[in-house]
Sequence to fold (80 residues):
Amino acid sequence: MRLPLLLIPVLLAACVSAPPAPLEPCAKYCSSREDGYQWAQRAHLGDARSCVGYPAAFIAGCQDAVMDLQQALAPGRDGL
Fold:
């Protein structure tokens, strides 16, 4: 099935403007650096402000994961 060319930008805009799913708080393993890293990776966190409210080691891991994701999404010197 081929979509009319005018419909494609409308569908893409709907995907981009969809609100993100609410972030589930950490509920089970929430104390170590690895716990924080894994939680942030699963949630695809792009903002370290979501890491607050947990033990220091968890926050450090969460912040590491956010930084890794930001670096992975940043274009390199050669572009995307």
Observations:
- Helices lie at 7-16, 33-43, 56-73.
- The chain has three helices and no strands.
- The chain has a mean pLDDT of 81.
